[in-house]
Amino acid sequence: MKGLFVTFEGIEGSGKTTIAKRISEHLNGEGHNAILTREPGGTEIGREIRRLLLDPENSGIHPVTELLLYFADRSEHVRKVISPALKRGDIIICDRFSDSTIAYQGFGRGIDIDMLNDLDRIARDGVKPDLTFVLDLDVRTGLGRNVLINKSDRFEMEEIAFHERVRNGYLRIAEQEPDRIRVIDALQPLDSVWEEIRVIIESYLDNAG
Questions:
Q1: How many Å separate Cα 87 from the centre of its chain?
Q2: What SS3 class is residue 8?
Q3: Is 149 a residue whose pLDDT tops 50?
Q4: Quick one: which of 71, 75, 78, 126 is 20 to 30 A from 44 by CA?
Q5: CATH number of the domain encompassing residue 16
Q6: How many domains does the structure of the chain reveal?
Q7: Biggest CA-to-CA distance, the chain
Q8: Residue 60 belongs to what domain range?
Q9: pLDDT single digits (tens) 105-116
Q10: How far, in Å, CA of 146 to CA of 123, rounded?
Q11: DSSP state of 26
């Protein structure tokens, strides 16, 4: 059986990390071999890169340096974790992937998107998600959720306008790839978000099987 690659995307506080974990646990409980991973940080080297990228003390990092660190993480992640798992027929559940780079570094930082896509193709090595969920909500609500749980990294500290650009970027990407990307209302109760996504994934698996 061909593996399935599912990614979860969204702005800060969207709930994607919680939902990705629940989906992975559910699929494993149903007898699938689902692997939960994330970007950055899905490999040993990736965890070091993640620490550098999210540390508030590195707020002065140049946008291009930041970008290349993300692609270094992705290259390692794809070649060491994602591709081998998909070849085995496993299901990969990934918290952030290429769409995050386009949304954050492209729309958020203003880096040329054509250049991003060229670099991303090298990092991805031909791997692309089969199904992507963008958990969408307004920026102030998302950031407010993270304040409540005391979560603060370098991206939470960005200005509101940056997060608005990122959110709009995600919605633009979703418009361009409606067959792959499902936009989910993340203002719903968490259980409603989970159920909506569960139904879509199980339907996808039924049709693929």
A1: 21
A2: strand
A3: no
A4: 126
A5: 3.40.50.300
A6: 1
A7: 48
A8: 4-208
A9: 999 999 999 999
A10: 30
A11: H
